Amino acid sequence: MKKDLLLDKTGKMLFWEVIFIVLNAMFFGIFLIFVFSSSGGVVVYEQAYAKQIALIIEEAKPVMEVKLNMEEGMKLAEKNNIDFDEIVKIKNNAVIVKLGRKGGYSYSFFNDVNVTASPDIASNKDYIIKVNA
Amino acid sequence: MLNKKKGGKLISVFWLFVLAIVGVGIAAGVSIYHSAEVDIREIEAGNLYEKISNCIIEQGFLIDDVLKEDFNVSDFFEECKLNEEIFGEGSVFYFNVQILDKSENLIKEIRGGDFSFEGDCEIQEEDEEGGKVTAKYYPKCIRKKETILYYENNEIKEAKLEILTASNQVGKKIFAIG
User: So what's the pLDDT on residue B133?
Assistant: First the structure.
């Protein structure tokens, strides 16, 4: 019975047709995987948050405390097993945002201020940026 | 002339070719989308302008320190709370503060960052005929001129202040965070 499905009217094996369908299925499968894995958004969110925080720091006057909603970023970080307090780092006048396992995104700011960044303990969505003198 | 079998194989070769083109197109589209940069250089240049302007002008008057002979670039960085290292070698920022008298003679000039941005900014400005050059990888610039007052020998004098600020920062992906 099974054999009949793979035979044409003359009883010959539909070899090339089967190969053709399998190749098509593999092709679309690979591309679906590629699209869904790319649309995770880690790179896009890292860039957006780093630039947003750098602008906040540049426009802030000491002493100022800013609470930034990073809900989407924190979800991505959690998915990639990144600790919340590792998401935003301020080093050598640069904001570094890390949401994935492969490094992060760095963006510099030009003012000479002491800045600290830490997750808001009260909520799992916000990050607190403190601009000190 | 091809028989039916060979014709079928030929069509599937074309089909694979079409699939390859579609696949490359999808991959290129997704890659372009995810590599798109959010360009905030103009906002940054604006922020730098505001910071410098608010630093050296108080209620329409130029602060006294700026016109002192011994007031140099390092003093300027300290006064305006700008990080001197960020404006050092390989900087992605630039500023030029020029103080001119009523006859447009230069009284004082203070500048920092990548000096080559000055020329890049000039190229992008509108020429006399209203033409403008746009260059994607050139810095984004803000240039403003305003009339200000200052004290000299207890007299109030008028001057022109021209501030040019530029940013060409695009950020970077880093693979190891120390």
Answer: 73
Residue percentage of chain A with pLDDT more than 90: 52
Q: Distance (Å, rounded) from C-alpha A87 to C-alpha A89?
A: 7
Cβ separation A105–B172 shorter than 8 A: yes
**Could you tell me if B91 and B113 are in contact, meaning their C-beta atoms sit under 8 angstroms apart?**
yes
| Closest residue in A to B6 (Cα–Cα) | A16
Substitution target from B31, B41, B47, B82 for chain A, most A beta carbons within 10 A: B47
Contacts of A89 in chain B (CB under 8 A): 177
Q: Which domains does chain A have, with CATH numbers?
A: 2-38 (no CATH), 42-132 (2.60.40)
Do residue B74 and residue B139 come from a single domain?
Answer: yes
Q: B92 contacts in A (CB within 8 Å)?
A: 108
Report pLDDT for A65.
Answer: 94
**pLDDT at res. A12:** 67
Cα–Cα distance for residue pair B178/A38, rounded to 1 Å = 26
**Under a CB-based contact definition with an 8 Å cutoff, are residues A36 and A105 in contact?**
no
Once rounded to an integer, what is the mean pLDDT over residues B15-43?
78
Using the Cβ of B171 and the Cβ atoms of chain A, whether some distance falls under 8 Å is answered with yes
Whole-complex ipTM:
0.78
